[in-house]
Write a structure and sequence with these properties.
mainly alpha, ABC transporter involved in vitamin B12 uptake, BtuC
């Protein structure tokens, strides 16, 4: 009788899958499949080595940015040490392969797990600290890990770093940009899919509740410290996994890339892309990597050509200024980031020719 009453009153859904189907359209499925086809078939066959290098860099950084977005965008825990965790994953992978002889498919997840443990240790202050104080604590973690990477010569190789042996999967050597492209972007697709589904679970809802109001979340019975540590662990796992890919791809790692500036770039990626959005982290990564590339090319041009060579010397330090200005402009004019721009564009095409 109750079920009959529901059917008489309206068309109610009785399962989670049916509820999700309300928001899914053939338009979305088509573009998703088309995007995957272009990414894994068209792009590798038509791109130069330089283009593949840029795409591989974007793919690696995007995995790390997705992890940071879980911590900041979904849980509200600010971290300035993401580059350090990225470096921990890179060095862990290098040690596991060069000194313990573990294969790539084993070293990748183990690097993520070890980095997650390190991240949870540095996430312990989140029990008592919030906002600016937590930011300073994670910044201290960044400096501590940087110091360890430089000074612990017996493990990290110090300033000289570690040369990573050629990676291979099932006997197939990964010795080109193209071969790494497939590994990196298959990893990105899987990691993004896992994150999207994680946010839909009770863990994801708990993260969002802590971000919105941690006291109210605790009043509802959510163990906030446990979930804060879990967020630090998952975020660090993503950073460590991406760092391991970075080590295999670059083949030689030194402490220099894993500095505070890289942490700032990761934060810029998720702010410009859109906090609390998996796709936003990817959009932001594309924007920041391409912006850095354009600025480098512009600086090189000004320094090497024509009577404006002196201008190039003055323009070179403005890279930080342009990054900061980009963040400020997005916060003012589009605080929800590129993900919101994509949502509006997608909605417009879905309703075309009847736009809002």
């Amino acid at each position: 009788m109750r079920k009959l009453h529901f059917h008489l009153c309206g068309n109610f859904k009785e399962s989670y899958e049916e509820e999700l189907a309300i928001f899914e359209t053939d338009f979305g499925r088509f573009w998703l499949m088309a995007g995957v086809f272009i990414l894994l078939v068209i792009v590798p066959l038509t791109s130069s080595s330089y283009t593949l290098y840029l795409l591989n860099t974007i793919g690696i950084y995007a995995i790390a940015a997705i992890g940071l977005n879980l911590l900041i965008g979904y849980t509200g825990q600010i971290s300035m040490g993401h580059a350090a965790f990225f470096g921990v994953g890179a060095y862990t992978a290098a040690v596991l392969t060069t000194r313990l002889g573990l294969p790539l498919l084993v070293a990748l997840p183990l690097s993520g797990v070890f980095t997650a443990i390190v991240g949870m240790i540095f996430g312990i202050p989140s029990l008592r600290l919030k906002h600016l104080y937590l930011t300073i604590a994670t910044l201290a973690g960044q400096f501590i890990i940087e110091y360890i990477l430089v000074q612990w010569d017996g493990v990290t190789g110090g300033a000289e770093g570690i040369a990573v042996s050629n990676a291979s999967i099932f006997g197939i050597k990964l010795d080109s940009d193209l071969s790494f492209y497939f590994l990196i972007f298959i990893s990105l697709i899987v990691m993004a899919w896992v994150m999207v589904n994680l946010i839909r679970t009770r863990f994801g809802r708990a993260f969002v509740a802590i971000r919105d109001n941690d006291r109210a979340a605790e009043g509802m019975g959510i163990p906030i410290f446990k979930y804060k540590l879990l967020a630090f662990g998952i975020s660090s796992f993503y950073a460590g996994f991406a760092g391991a890919l970075f080590a295999f791809y670059m083949m030689t790692i030194t402490p220099e890339p894993f500095n505070m500036w890289l942490s700032i770039e990761f934060i810029a990626m998720i702010i410009i892309g859109g906090l609390g959005s998996v796709s936003g982290a990817i959009f932001g990564t594309v924007f920041i990597v391409m912006l850095g590339e354009v600025l480098s090319m512009a600086t090189e041009f000004l320094m090497n050509y024509g009577p404006v060579a002196d201008i190039g010397v003055n323009v070179a330090p403005l890279r930080e200024f342009v990054f900061g200005l980009s963040i400020v402009l997005f916060i003012i004019f589009e605080p929800k980031g590129l993900a919101e721009v994509w949502r509006i564009t997608r909605s417009s095409f879905r309703l075309w020719p009847f736009s809002y």
